[in-house]
Design goal:
It is built from 11 helices and 7 strands. By secondary structure, the chain is of the alpha/beta class. The chain has one domain: Rossmann fold, CATH 3.40.50. The chain has a 7-stranded parallel beta sheet, sandwiched between helices. Helix 4 links the parallel strand 4 and strand 5. The relative contact order is 0.13. Its EC number is 1.-.-.-. Keywords: Oxidoreductase. Pfam families: adh_short. This is Oxidoreductase.
């Protein structure tokens, strides 16, 4: 009953973690609002969720890397919904390259989506949540935001930025009764890696450790409208990131071979 009737806005909802968050939220009585670039996929997901739960999610096309589009879409949503209870900033992508191979246009796009778009979406709903003194902002970051590894310099930089923004926002938002949560999964079985690692080598190397998107989604939905600071998955990787903060040199030495598995 905690989520029944609450509007849950999800970016990057056309597949992967975002789609499964919408599924799980609807099963718990929430009213998902699906945002992504592929309107066709959103339409299919909305119809499927309605068939399974009786709840038909709203949906709209959104490229979070387009700031004007973010403002227009959220302005329309706020007028239609009147309340946004939960915002899940899930949209994002990564590309794994050694520093000498970084494409600067690709770098700019990664920051535009992973960082600037996330902040823009947050700003679109935050004043409304402040006024109501209620709400929850959930930012999907990554374990890569805690431990940077070879070939992930730009992607890790974007997720470090997300965690920094999230930690600051949490302190500010607490004054108004707004919850802020960072979600830090390790590798997840989604199409993320079709762009991040076209060779497929990384997936082959870490496939036995990859998380199921359904499992991540359940943890995210379980945290909604609760004062959960962070969700970290899997546990052993969370332990590794904690150890890294205490003894970075030791971890880099011991885990060096594993870090080069991309």
């Amino acid at each position: 009953m905690r989520l029944k009737g609450r509007h849950v806005v999800i970016t990057g909802a056309s597949g992967g973690i975002g789609e499964h968050i919408a599924d799980e939220a609807a099963r718990q009585g929430a009213l998902p609002v699906l945002l992504a670039r592929s309107e066709g996929k959103l339409k299919e997901i909305s119809a499927r969720i309605e068939a399974q739960t009786g709840i038909r999610p709203r949906y709209a096309r959104l490229d979070v890397g387009d700031r004007e589009m973010v403002e227009a879409v959220f302005s329309r949503l706020m007028a239609e919904l009147e309340t946004v209870d939960v915002l899940v900033n899930n949209a994002g992508f990564g590309v794994f390259r050694y520093v000498e191979d970084i494409d600067l246009a690709e770098m700019e796009r990664m920051f535009a989506v992973n960082v600037f778009g996330l902040i823009a979406c947050t700003k679109a709903v935050y004043p409304h949540m402040k006024e109501r003194k209620s709400g929850h902002i959930i930012n999907i970051a990554s374990q890569a935001g805690k431990i940077a590894t070879p070939k992930s310099s730009v992607y890790s930089a974007t997720k470090h930025a997300v965690l920094g923004f999230t930690d600051s926002l949490r302190l500010e938002a607490a004054r108004f009764g707004i919850f802020v949560t960072a979600v830090n999964p390790g590798p997840v079985e989604t199409n993320f890696f079709s762009a991040a690692d076209e060779s497929g080598e990384y997936v082959r190397n870490v496939s036995r450790w990859m998380l199921r998107p359904e499992a991540v989604a359940k943890r995210v939905v379980a945290a909604m409208m609760t004062p959960t600071r962070e969700v970290n998955m899997p546990r052993w990787m969370d332990f590794g990131s904690r150890l890294y903060r205490l003894a970075p040199g030791l971890v880099e030495t011991v885990a060096k071979r594993a870090f080069f598995q991309k």
